[in-house]
Each structure stands twice: as C-alpha cells, then as structure tokens.
Design a protein that fits this description.
The chain has 435 residues and is mainly α. The protein is 76% helix and 0% strand. The chain has helices at residues 2-13, 20-24, 31-47, 52-55, 65-89, 92-124, 129-159, 162-182, 226-254, 258-285, 290-308, 315-319, 321-354, 361-390, 395-431.
Length: 435
C-alpha cells in the first residue's frame, strides 16, 4: 500500500513531462517560463523544509500518519480535476502563472508525503526500515515517474490536455480508496507483519522510537551528520547530469535519433527501480557496512560516467556510446541507490557513534528531512551544472568532472569509515579495565 501511494503521487508529478513543451508551443510562452513550470516541483520540494510549517514537522505516536497520507492523496485528486479544465478557462500569461504556482505547491506537498511515508515506515515496520524505504521511495517512486510520463504523453495525444489529468487523477482516487482500507489506524509497529528477513538490531538499527544512545543527554544534531549527505549529493549530481546530457550527446556523437536517446533515459528510470530494491536488500541484510556500501555505489557511478561519456581517445568506446550507454545506465542504476539507501543510517551513526549524542524521534525526523531535501537538491544541481558545462566544455569533459565528484564521495565515505572505527576504539579503551 505504501508503495502504491508513492507510485501514484509520483506519477502526478511527472504527468506533463512528455507533452509540456508541445502544449506550450505557439502560445507565446518564453523558455524561462517553461523552465519554471518544468522545475517547479523541485523548487517547491527544496524550499519546503525551510518553511516553518514543514521545517518543524516531526511525528510521534500521537500523529495519525494514515490520515495525513489520505488527505494529501485527496488534494492530489482535486488538483488533477481542477488542472484538467484550467486550460479551457484561462489562457496565456495567466495560465502560465497558475501552472508555475501549482507546480511549486505540488513540490511542497511532495515533501510532506515523502516525510509522511518515511515516518510511517519507521513506526509501522521499524525492523525493516532500510528495505521498505528503498522499496517505497525508490522503486515505487521511479515506477511512478515512468507511468506518469508514459500515460501522460499517450493520453495527451489521444484526448488532449485534460486527458492525462483525468486518467491519472482517477488512478490516484482508486489507490486512495484501496490504501484507506489497508493502512493501520495507529502508529504502533505491525506485530503480524510477515518478515522478509530476520530483523538485525545492532548499532545500525533504526528502530523507532527508542534512542540509539540511551543515557546520553538530550542534545541537538551535530553539523557532522551533513557529511554523509554531502557525499550522497555528489552522486545525485552525476545522475542529474546524466539525464540532462545523454540525449544531446548521443545525437551528436553517434547520430542516433532523439527518440532512441530518450528511450535510454526511460530504461534508466526502470533500472533505478530495480536498483533500489536490491540496495534495500543489501542494506537490510547488512551485507556491507553503510560506509563500504556507499563507497562501492559511488565507484559504480564513476564507472558509469566513463562508459557513458568516453573520451575520443578511446575511439572504440566513443563510436559505440549508443551501445555502451546501456552498460553505463546499469552501473548508474545500481550505484546510485546503494549510496542513497544508507545515507540516513550513516547520518544517524555519525550522530551517535562518532559524536556521542542522543537520537530522539524528532532528531530522526530532521535527519530524514535533510536527506530527502539533499537527494532532490543534488539531482537538480546536476541538471543546472550540466547546462553551464555545455556552454564551455565538451560532453566527455563534463562527464569526467562529475566522475571526480563521485570519487570525492568515495573519499568522504572512507573518511567516515575511519572515524567510526576510531570512535569505537577510543570507547573500547575507556571501558577496558587496566590490570
């Protein structure tokens, strides 16, 4: 049910990605306005944690998470119904202004439902937080992106502007009716949940709401918790660069059609959906430590950049980029989720293991807020940087710059790994009796 919530609401966010440029053609709408409409969700998402309404949001056992999710889905249904007929009522600059406002408002709502999903998972399925978070926000979210883009474009061609919003709005309404019968009415852990794996409760456990450090005084978040997030954002920037540059690079380098280049981006979204499932399994089973997993994921992303944007010196790779690109998106689709899925765990480990501070439910919510915002901010920053680099350097040079950021993320994870090891050693020395 949680996966369906993320999938349905994500599909609304991507509903007009395939036909927006076509719809604005011939309406005397500037490229700047089109860019604001296209990036409005990201803009609203990134500024929402800094608003008092959302920035102070945290959940406890008295918050009806299921009602918040159902209310947000109902708002999305109303939005789709209203937006479907707005094009017949207002036109020109007024329509553009409404579009920008609606997209920014959608970004604010997107942050709220993402936070609600994270806190719902932490309450209802605490023993499987990492696995279910990857499944819901990663796999469910990216499947929703693919559905929204595909269904939106197809229904626009057959039914016009109102078609995509009516179809997706009806889909969200059906999901709302379904999840209203499934989601628990309280925030107690689900004792009857049939575990996919035996729970692993150690220092990396994110069990809610017990603090990880039981006897530490109540303290605020350490600024050092942002270091793992910085490493994740560097990897997310590479993903934004990939989406922005792949199509023009293949058109220029390999003389392929824009349609074929776009199909590679669609395949990338589907591979990410699979990658988040695999990353969630790896994280939940603790096959690798969080820092080692993040290092491995960042290396895969750097390798993906090499195969996607090879230097002309490697003539064989360069001339066959439209084939090696599929290997690149597989490496990307596996590497990026490996980093994203353990960042929350790494941030909480820094708070407790390295800084020796307590971790209350409110602080966990703040960490999740930073994580969600940094995830999207890194992605859109990569798109922005891609636009700047295209005017000054070649595609492959830009790819190498993004690869350097990914390798810097590896260095950050290695440093954190050493810091955690050093903190454990110091703590062991304090408790070891001297004979």
């Amino acid at each position: 049910a949680l996966c369906m919530v993320a999938q349905a609401l994500s599909s609304v966010n991507m509903i007009n990605s395939g036909f927006l440029a076509v719809h604005f053609t011939g309406r005397n709408i500037s490229g700047a306005v089109y860019g604001l409409v296209g990036s409005g969700v990201g803009l609203g998402y990134m500024v929402s944690p800094f608003l008092n309404i959302f920035g102070r949001l945290h959940f406890d056992r008295n918050i009806p998470v299921h009602l918040i999710l159902q209310g947000l889905m109902l708002i999305y249904v109303i939005k789709c119904a209203a937006y479907a007929f707005s094009d017949h009522i207002v036109h020109g600059a007024v329509f553009s202004g409404i579009s920008i406002a609606v997209r920014i408002f959608t970004g604010l709502l997107s942050y709220l439902w993402a936070m609600s999903l994270v806190e719902g998972i932490r309450c209802w399925l605490p023993d499987h937080f990492q696995l279910v978070t990857s499944l819901v926000l990663g796999t469910g979210g990216y499947i929703g992106y693919a559905i929204g883009s595909f269904v939106g474009t197809l229904s626009y061609e057959e039914m016009g502007f109102h078609g995509p919003y009516l179809i997706i709005g009806l889909y969200v309404l059906l999901v709302l009716l379904f999840v209203s019968m499934i989601l628990p009415r309280d925030t107690n852990p689900i004792s009857s949940f049939e575990r996919l794996y035996e729970p692993v409760l150690d220092k990396h456990s994110l069990a809610y709401p017990e603090p990880v450090v039981q006897h530490a005084p109540e303290q605020g978040l350490s600024p050092l918790v942002l270091i793992p997030l910085l490493g994740q954002m560097m990897v997310n920037m590479a993903g934004g660069y990939l989406v922005m540059v792949t199509v023009p690079f293949l058109v220029e380098c390999c003389s392929v059609s824009a349609t074929r280049g776009s199909s590679m981006i669609t395949a990338y979204s589907l591979i990410l959906a699979v990658g988040f499932f695999l990353a969630g399994v790896v994280s939940q089973r603790q096959i690798l430590s969080p820092t080692t997993q993040a290092m491995f994921g960042a290396v895969l992303v750097a390798l993906g950049l090499f195969f996607m944007f090879p230097s002309p010196t490697f003539s064989l790779l360069y001339s066959n980029s439209h084939y090696t690109g599929y290997l690149a998106i597989v490496l990307f689709g596996l590497g990026d989720p490996l980093v994203v899925s353990v960042t929350v765990c790494s941030m909480e480990t820094i708070q407790t293991e390295v800084c020796g501070r307590s971790l209350s439910p409110k602080q966990s919510s703040r960490i999740a807020s930073f994580w969600l915002t940094g995830w999207l901010f890194g992605y859109y920053s990569g798109m922005f940087i891609a636009g700047l680099l295209l005017e000054s350097v070649s595609f492959e040079v830009g790819g190498w710059i993004m690869a350097a950021f990914s390798l810097l993320s590896v260095l950050i994870s290695a440093t954190l790994k050493f810091a955690v090891w050093w903190s454990k050693r110091k703590r062991a020395e304090k408790v070891t009796p001297v004979v």
